[in-house]
GTPase Der
Amino acid sequence: MPVVAIVGRPNVGKSTLFNRILGRRKALVEDFPGVTRDRNYAEVTRFDKPFTLIDTGGFEPQSQERLLQQMREQSQLAIEEADLIVFLLDVQQGLTPADQDVANMLRRVDKPVLYVVNKVDGDRQEQGAAEFYALGVEDIFTVSAEHGLGVNHLVAGILARLPEAPKPVTDEEVTRIAVIGRPNVGKSSLVNRLLGYERVVANPVAGTTRDSVDTAFVYNRKPYLLIDTAGIRRKGKVSQKLEKFSVVQALKAMERTDIVLMVIDAEEGVTEQDLNVAGYAHEQGRALLLVVNKWDAIEKDNQTLGRFVEKIRVTFKFLPYAPILFVSALTGQRVAKIMGEVEKVALEYNRQVGTGELNKVVEKAVSSHPPAVYHGKRLKIFYAVQVGVRPPSFVIFVSKAEGFHFSYERYLVNKIRDAFGFQGTPIRLFFRDRERK
């Protein structure tokens, strides 16, 4: 799919234009500079020619501040990835030296560039936009991203200049991986280690990642989508509207993923928030790996690992199936093992078992531990069938579904897991009354 990157100085309206073209509110928008810090990706499919749109952080060519330097690096990476670049300018601020610097840099890029002047919502602003022809360009698009004026004309210009897209990978072929966890546990650093390059801004300041950031990649000839999310904080600690929306983005990312990498800070240990987030992933039926980061910072003896594993298992008692990995995103220690585990979990998440084999396991389980008596009658299990994957889901046809206690459901799930594995994935079990003829 062709890639379009929106670049420009901070606070010229890039995120507002991103949302306007996308047709929904995905990027964070606030009335102060520096809100968007990473490249934010979205697939635009509502026009004749689909394309991937990238919203970038503000581009300050001369700034020496570390965070602004990182944002500039992200913009440069977006420009390298893009097939077409939208250079957004601000009619209210006029043509600035920084705009000149960005324009000079873009002239050295062998890619089509559309020069777009934003915040043009009247004749006076339209006349002011003429100033930007001093950049030496022939065509300038004038828009008001906030009000939608001129955006359709801009989209037509984008579509006319896009290359033909290759055959897209279907959703069924892609395994989506979301990196989830509290702020400052090292999620972005872990993403960068997994991909092998600086894909997202990694900064010791908590909350640096505010948008969910998607990256497509291939591992062992299989397509994956890696989603780096904003840190999730307890509701009481999420005060700013900006952070609240970041939490929503992270939870939405979890809803559209297949596998969750739940990142835990080894120095802080397991927290109540880790438990809540993992519980949400479990309830959503997502496969899950527990990734303990910053393991290099822990003083160890021969029993440290065992004690930590035991504590995790006791705390996450509802996740006995989740693999536990101890890594260091800082040093790269054991990070290479993560994708190997992801591959195994993905297979289990999509695993289908035969009906005959399944019923042998269920019959043996019932023989060893029959269901309870309900309203004076022994409950009966007739047969079982797998009805779905992602996660593996089973229907058990019984005499009286309402009579089965959750403890017996857990017993059957454990027996199915003992027989077939399903490592890393929850199992859904549904009791259903058998229809009488």
